Amino acid sequence: MSYSRHFLDFQGSSIPSSMKKLVVTKLSQNFREAVTLRQDSPVPLPGDGDLLVRNRFVGINASDINYSAGRYDASVKPPFDIGFEGVGEVVALGLSASADYTVGQAVAYVKAGSFAEYTVVPAKQAVPLPSVKPEFLTLMVSGATAYISLKELGELSEGKKVLVTAAAGGTGQFAVQLAKKAECHVIGTCSSDEKGGFLKSIGCDRTINYKTENVESVLRKDYPEGVDVVYESVGGKMFDLALNSLATKGCLIVTGFIAGYQNPTGLQPIKAELLPAKLLKKSASVRGFFLNHYLSKYKMALKHLLEMYERGDLVCEVDFGDMSPEGKFTGLESVFRAVDYMYMGKNIGKIVVELPHSVNSKL
User: Domain Enoyl reductase (ER), which positions (predicted)?
Assistant: First the structure.
């Protein structure tokens, strides 16, 4: 079917027939080795219930390199698309999708294949937005992970002590704020005084710069009874340390283990042989959290997060890489730099790449 018959175009701009996108061409946790920038991929056609979204902002996640290494689904063979989330505007849509969406509407989505100029998104998976803003992108995976995991597993209540590792990162920033809203005492680990300053600005009660302070001795000295909840995304030695810092009946929530993702196995060793004894001694628990298993809670979580942001009750910190050596992350070419930047531990907030284009451009 021709473009003109199948599409409703956006403000008279031309949808090109080809586009740039990132494709995993070799399985590897080394993102630069695994991923290729394709210059002339065909722009996909939306089906009856689909939207064609022109991506304006795409999010960088620690798990991008797990995805490029094929760790999510061992049966998938390259080439395949990559990138978990995007924000942009609808430029075309199928007939059924037009019942709920219009051309020009701002939307966000979580779906593999966002590292592209255009992505087809099922209308049912899209989230309508008041405008195209990068802050909305921070909520899609990072914010929702913190919100749902703490609500479902954290059993937060007034006065509980909550330790957040990598607290100034994409998801850590939300764990800190949501724990504070539950009137908890929040401790956040980070790697610089600048990050510590950011954490204080969003309500963190005690920041620990692990480059200049010994986290274990600080926790032992300042929190001799231990901490009630740990929001843990680092893994390796930080996991061991967090486990040791749990209070009686404490809960450690594992949302990731970024310290290991760059290894061939994707793992960083922990002292697991002592785990049963440590848990028994404290009646403590370790809970894993993977967002895909909680999709029934997702829409409500996102609704609440969006409302909080719109009311000014939630800081959604975005890091465009302005302070990175080569400057702001602009265009799909810069996704490679953005992933490097994440693994250098430099970001404050969520790393976002902007894909600029004017309305009337043919790219």
Answer: 30-353
